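Reading is simple: each integer encodes one residue's backbone shape. The lines below illustrate:
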Amino acid sequence: MKKILALLTVTFFNVFNSQVAIGKTAVSNSSVSLEFGAQNRGLLLPWVTSATTMTNTPNGTICFDLIDNRIKIKYAVGWQDFSQNSLGTTIDPVTTIDGRILQDPLTDIPTAKTSIGSSQSSSSAILILEDNNKAMILPKVASPHYNIINPSPGMMVYDTDSKMFAVFNGSMWTYWR
């Protein structure tokens, strides 16, 4: 019942308000389409079987590629490694369970997606933030390598201590200015 209520709430805000707050009561910035609360949590990227075989993929798409366990971003010239060439993994270091075991038996629903913003995209993405004058604010975490316990592969945050974009590839955090 909670999942249905959450889906209806997101749908309601999607239709009537192009701004969504997660983990807080309201968006604090009018230039934001999606904003997160202050908990020590990150935004988890979708795991894809192979980024290079995805169709209808617009520039700016970010995912965790299971072919080589790397975070990738789509640019006009193709897919670029966003993991700074460090080897990633889907093995949980605490439980030693491979996350693929949890993902593989699940059936994807190709039509399941949410769009926040001014238009309805035909992209194959599951979450689409599309607006001409709004952006997404990543979850903010001070020193995520210390404060996020057992992060999942594909997690991304803004590190408020180093003032950098941080992504976790299953083995290590990498930082981008």
